[in-house]
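Hi P.,

Sorry for the delay on this. The queue was packed all week, but I finally got your sequence through. Input first:
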Amino acid sequence: MPDPAQLKRLPIVVPALIGMMAPMILMAALMTALTIALMTVPIMALAQQDSASAGTEQNASAGTEQNASAGTEQNDSAAVADPDNTAQDAASAELSESSEPSTVVDQPPRVTLTPPEPITPPPLKPLKIMLDWYPGPQHAALLIAQHKGLMERQGLQVTLSTPADPTLPTRLLAAGRIDLAVSRQPLLHLQVDQGLPLIRIGTLVDLPLAGLLLRDDGTMESPAQLAGKRIGYSVEESRELLLPALLKPHGIAIEELELVDVNFSAVIHMVDESLDGVMTPQRLALPRRLGDEGITARLLNLEEHGFPRHEGLILVANRDRLGGQKESLRRLLEALTEATAWSLEHPEEAWALLADIEPTLDTPANQDAWPAMLMRLSARPAALDQGGYRRFEAFLHEQGLLETLTPVDKLAVDLGAP
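Then the structure:
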């Protein structure tokens, strides 16, 4: 039988034993729960990784999928078979931390094709050019270059205008109202001597266009017979330079002529006012126009009466503004060079184009004058004949028609020179 004394101690011992074993039981329960948790996390992570991998690799080959699945299954089995392996647990924990399931699925790069933005061309440089006369064959290079788009190709927006009076263009140029004026070499020498800031930058017609047209009635054979005659003129240099220089060798003063300003209407004045002759810058076309009106005329060429050869038609700039215009003017001369070259190669097409551009110049007189004018067009508009300018300046100064002798570099410039 149990000792009664021992039975009396049971109520004290049992609770004490239970109190001592409770922490151990609790610790065992925690260890078991932790072990189960460690076993569950890597298995779930690997399962999720397999699921994501299967979703993103649907287009892979069947062999690749099988190899990947087999490797994953082996890892899972090892993790289950050896739950107490601490190294495996650590590796599983690292894998769990670094392999967070992702909801982002990689997409291939996309390219959106849109039309390119249009390239805005640079603005065109405006140039205002005033002709010396109404449009005619002598202006062929300017008219053709503008109509064929050669000036725009050079970055220029050129505006051509016709003067109401032939004395206006160079005056407006000197005042800065226009960028360029079409003029004539004799007028340039005269106006520079008068103090106007003008300078030649290009040539449109290489040979003289001025001449004295006289009625061919058999009464006049030379300038020596001009005293007392009624002579018309249309441009300033005719009155101030050309007629005086033509008369001087014959001992005739300009005051001995009756001068009539005919402006643009030489033919009308010859018919209505019975002029004996007219000094004109239109010597190629005017004889035919007079002939159509029943007036037979003979032409006295100035270069056959002591005048040095000179340029018939030139482009003049304002010398004070030249520095800021050089590049634009060079490009203009390039366009004129191209237009003249095309005209020389295609004379009939060039005339047809001129007639289409300016119907008013499509007259029998201008058509007759076109072959001769074409031969006179400057093939190298920028080129400067310094000797020719020097000789003509010296001639006018020796005749007493100019007060000072102006050096060539104040009269003309070659923009194409290096």
